[in-house]
């Protein structure tokens, strides 16, 4: 099967690193015209320079997804330059932890403005262009926690759930215009955040021990790679996926309900590490 995306006009948000960068690279390698954005100007310009060696054409801009006017201006620039927009990959967003005892309502709303409203702003901006050509693909990059809630990380749980509901609703309502909307729900994808998770455990354990703990809940037994996500994004943007809309696809190595056990595992592991350090000091 050859996925030919030559000349497709693609927008990838949050494309300066991690999953977004891997997706942008993959579309560029398939001959697409790729427009990328992220908040950090220096980082997204570096991405643009890299993609220019692969893609048919590149636009790279600093865009804040909480800025409705800025989002619309970016999309309008892409559409004016290339005559339209074919594919939107809504990747921009961030995880956020916290629970009932540590969060304020305002913190949850701030996260919602970045995540679910950020996705909504981009969809609202690209859909008129897709409707005019009666062809479009929108790929929502979400998280498994939106489909299977965990007992911690309330902002990510509820705002990712909202993004997933938005994707399903749009996948139904826009299908009549031949605009297909689908969600990819991430499990443990190694984009560098696991270095931070490891650092939160504290001293006393090796990285190998930490990884073994984290991967206990992943049936495939490894972290996913950003390229694992990019491959499915390419498929959904292609004509091979022309009868798929409002779908929710987990990119998780088999991880499902086991995700609920991870916060407990991490707390127990951190306590074990703490006790080990105390014992080592006493000895």
From TrEMBL:
This protein's name: Short-chain dehydrogenase
Gene3D superfamilies (alphabetical): NAD(P)-binding Rossmann-like Domain
Position of the signal peptide: none
Family: Belongs to the short-chain dehydrogenases/reductases (SDR) family.
A family per Pfam: adh_short_C2
Organism: Massilia timonae CCUG 45783
SUPFAM superfamilies (alphabetical): NAD(P)-binding Rossmann-fold domains (SSF51735)
